[in-house]
Amino acid sequence: MKFVITELGLISRLFAAGFLNRFSPQDIKFFIVDYCYNDQLKRGKFDSVIIHKMLVQGMLNIVSIDEKENEQAADLFLKHSNFLFQSIVSIVYAKQTGIDFFVEDPNLMTLAFNYVQGKIDIHSKGYLISSLLHKINIEEEKFDKKVLMSI
Amino acid sequence: MKKILSANLQKARQLRDLTMEELANIIGCSKQAISHYENAIRFPDSQTLIALAEALHVDFESLIRPNAVQFSILDVNYRQGIELTHQEKTEIQRIASERLNNYVELEQIAKDIIKFENPISDLLVNNTSDAEKASKLLRKKWKLADLPIPNVTKMLEDKGIRILKIDFGPVYQHEGLSGWAENKTIPVIVINSKQKELARVRYTLFHELGHLLLSMNDDLTNAEIERICEVFAGTMILPTDVLIREFGKNRTNISIPELRRIKEYYGISILAIMVRARFSELISYETFIKWRDSKFFGEDFGQYLGKEEPQRFDQLLFKCLSENKIGIDKAVKLTSKTEEEFQNFYNELFKF
To answer: Which of B33-42, B187-196, B306-315 has the lowest mean pLDDT?
Structure first.
């Protein structure tokens, strides 16, 4: 499973709750564009020790985009400047690489749906958690509800 | 897009006083690459754009956003007599520009832009008497009558003046500053968040308003301009007719309780009331000196209990959030807060 993400909070909470450490980096990989990563370092709310661990393991990957993609994203940003540029870049990157996109903001999800035109899947938090539970063969009911609520 | 980046990059580089070569050295690329970006020949990759933004101390979005607003300081509040170095001025302009950009961007998203018009632009100001005339005319044009103004910030925001409250840290210790953006179409007043006394904040707001709106005679010195703005601020808060009504003429002694009542009702400091009374010749020079030499001088009697906090930016933000025009991530960035700070601030508003 591969996902492009725009923030680090959710995956650090998933890791802390014991969802992600059941996987190897070959099973699941998260990709975050450098714009998002840099901004998250300044403004984000996440466990930096966990994120560092995920980077070292290769489960989390910081990616850069080339001149062409960057300009393409900037053009798209001109039409949708009520979103963050880094969010737009993430959608462009996901489409270019064919990696599924994970998003929590419903407005961004709509924009992503329209932009990728079915070329990749767009996932919400519920889907991500269900997929992870499915992979590790744990039904949602059996998983500690308090842990689920905290994510 | 290349053209937008080229204009913004050049502007940001010049504001930092850097040559193309110096910028290239800082970020570790060739001078030719910078020249290509500034001449709209090439567009940088993500790593280079991030490096450029960091080197220029700007947000990377500001380099690709069309119509990035550039705030220029028209005048600073020199009441403490401290001049600013070029470097300090550049840093203040950068901080204020960044905040103003967020403000203007939010207005554009909300489609709520108040166009400003200066109703006293035709009145040439030569001296303090003209400042008083200008204040009277402005009160009339803005339909303020002779009434106390309960919230100066809100009143100015409703007229189209952008009010920013900024903590400049050690870079800028003065109470306020003002300026224009976008070819003198967006008036901006910046209040230093260090200033806590409301009466003082109100005075500063009107003092800066004077700098923005008064058409000063070119021959005036800086000291004369400052004096004119002080009179303008004083008369805006407490018009002369009101002062006469409250004070009475030919007073020989002034008591603290009456000064305190005027302060609490009109939101003006006791010192400013006494200066206004002397300026309006309601008290003699001797009476003023007698008060100045008394044990009460400098004491903080009474408190104005109003509110002077910029409201419009927050209101636009909440409006855009509730109408799903922006997401939380964008709101975080526009407020220049961290995610945690924003969530604490936002969640606080839902508490009973």
So the answer is: B187-196
Please give the CATH topology (third level) of the domain spanning A2-150: Rossmann fold (3.40.50)
Distance CA B24, CA B289 (A): 61
The span from the CA of B91 to the CA of A72, in Å, is: 32
Task: Show Cβ contacts of residue A101 under 8 Å, excluding neighbours closer than 6 positions.
Answer: A3, A4, A90, A91, A94, A112, A116, A120, A121, A122, A123
Query: Averaged over A25-43, what is the pLDDT?
Result: 91
Nearest C-alpha of chain A: how many angstroms from B99?
16
Q: How many CB atoms lie within 10 A of CB B26?
A: 15
- Cα–Cα dist B325/B343, whole Å: 18
Picking from A47, A80, A63, A55, the residue whose alpha carbon sits closest to that of residue A6 is A63
pLDDT digits 0-9 by tens, A62-113 = 999 999 999 999 999 988 888 999 999 999 999 999 999 988 888 888 888 8
Q: Looking at chain A, which residue has its C-alpha nearest residue B327? A: A105
Q: Strand pairing of B176-181 and B71-76? A: antiparallel
Q: Does A34 touch chain B (CB under 8 A)?
A: yes
- Chain B closest CA to A34's CA: distance in Å? 7
The pLDDT assigned to A148 comes to 63
Of the partner residues A39, A75, A108, the one whose CB lies closest to the CB of residue B327: A108
Residue A18 pLDDT > 60 = yes
A84 contacts B329? CB cut-off 8 A? yes
Instruction: List the strands of the sheet with B176-181, edge to edge.
Output: B71-76, B176-181, B186-192, B162-166
Q: Do A74 and B329 touch (CB under 8 A)?
A: no
The residue that leads in pLDDT, A21 or B18, is: B18
Asked if the Cβ–Cβ distance from B46 to A64 is below 8 Å, we say: yes
Whether A70 and chain B come into contact, CB under 8 Å, resolves to yes
The amino acid at A54: M
Nearest chain B Cα distance for residue A98, angstroms = 19
**Residue A117 forms contact with B (CB below 8 Å):** no
Q: What is the ipTM of this complex?
A: 0.87
Indicate the angle between helix axes B285-292 and B270-279, nearest 10 degrees.
Answer: 160
Residue-wise pLDDT for B229-246, tens only, equals 999 999 999 999 898 988
B105 Cβ under 8 Å from any chain A Cβ: yes
CB contact under 8 A, B105 and A44: no
